[in-house]
Amino acid sequence: MALDAAAGVHGRALGHGVGIERHGGGHWCRPTVLSGVDHGMLVMTEETFGPVLPVMAVSGPGEAVALANDSVYGLSAAVFAADEEQARAVAARLQAGAVSINDAGLTALVHEGEKNSFRLSGLGGSRMGPASIGRFLRRRAFLVNRSDAADPWWHSTKE
Questions:
Q1: Which pLDDT value is given to residue 74?
Q2: Higher pLDDT, 59 or 97
Q3: The whole model's pTM is what?
Q4: CA-CA distance, 66 to 117, in Å (whole number)?
Q5: How far apart are CA 39 and CA 67, in angstroms?
Q6: Which residue of 30, 60, 96, 114 pairs with 129 in a disulfide if CB–CB is 3.0 to 4.6 A?
Q7: For 14-47, what is each residue's pLDDT tens digit?
């Protein structure tokens, strides 16, 4: 469904471009702000992976956190606040692998920031920092009991 049609039925698109543009060999969409949205709309609960910002009024930080956590996803989040301490308090309550504070894109740009996705987001281990190589490894453990002592959890190895 075209953005204008979706916005007309489900909300209102503000400050959006027309169509898809080509730049440097790639396809680009202009940033789009959606107003008049509510938590029942997919744009509020699905991962958009585009320059789309749905704006919805809430009663306060508690409702904002509850709504943000009401999703099957949890890759990244962003918190904006005038007070950094308050922003960190809200960020700590979000169920997301990384939270940008007073910025929307730090989680993608700061490669040293190791994170794990929550729920159905991402592919497991961090794509950032030294731990990123770990997602390509499979850990195994070989545990050998060489003791002749009685083991209360298992049968005796003596005949």
A1: 85
A2: 59
A3: 0.66
A4: 18
A5: 7
A6: 114
A7: 665 556 788 888 888 888 888 999 999 998 988 8
Token reading at 72? 């099957």
Q: Which of 41, 55, 42 is nearest to 104 (CA)?
A: 55
Three-class DSSP labels, the chain: CCHHHHHHHHCEEECCCCCCEEECCEEECCCEEEECCCCCCHHHHCCCCCCEEECCCCCCHHHHHHHHHCCCEECEEEECCCCHHHHHHHHHHCCCCEEEECCCCHHHHCCCCCCCCEECCCCCCCCCCHHHHHHHCCCCCCCCCCCCCCCCCCCCCCC
In single-letter form, the type of residue at position 95 comes to Q
pLDDT digits (tens, 9 = 90+) for 71-109: 998 888 889 899 999 999 999 999 988 888 998 777 667
Which contacts of 62-70 are long-range, i.e. CB under 8 A and separated by 24 or more positions? 64/90, 65/90, 65/93, 65/94, 67/39, 68/94, 68/95, 68/96, 69/93, 69/94, 69/95, 70/39, 70/45
Angle at 66 between CA 59 and CA 81, to 5 degrees: 60
